[in-house]
Automatic annotation (TrEMBL):
Source species, domain of life: Bacteria
Organism: Streptomyces smyrnaeus
Domain N-acetyltransferase: 11-167
Signal peptide: none
Protein name in UniProt: GNAT family N-acetyltransferase
Amino acid sequence: MDPVTLETDRLVLRAFTSADVDAVYEACQDEEIQFYTPVPVPYRRADAEKRIGEELPAGWSTDKSYTFGAFRKDSGALVGSYCLFVVMPGVWEIGYWAVKAQRGHGYSVEAARALCDWGWATLDVHRIEWWAMVGNIGSRAVAEKLGFTVEGTLRNRGIANDGKPHDWWIGGLLKP
């Protein structure tokens, strides 16, 4: 699929471009993003270049993942990254991170809701899953505001960037 653009009242969601490399690089210097999301540590500018220039376009072209940058309409500032990627037929996972300065304004709920609505309307989806490391209360709050049901905690599900296993929450949202 070719990248598409989504709009909400306050945001434009679009595919990242090379013009966004610096903003992504700066955002991914945040310790919380580095701890709670699977980004390289340390996060270098070359990591942002590869992600935006190679990995994200490959997701769109293979129809395996669709990643949008969310940008404020009023300032053009990067709010965060929001993606849907296929887990198995009919099941997709949502993933997101938000720029530290943009947290607490409802932008992530707005962006993720637009993404889920687009997924229901466009993709063959009957369930969207959300996963987050236990302790990532911001991610959980967004998921719960979107209507995800937290279905459980998986003990020692994954190794974080600190090299240690951590428990993870899992949630699901069924097609309305």
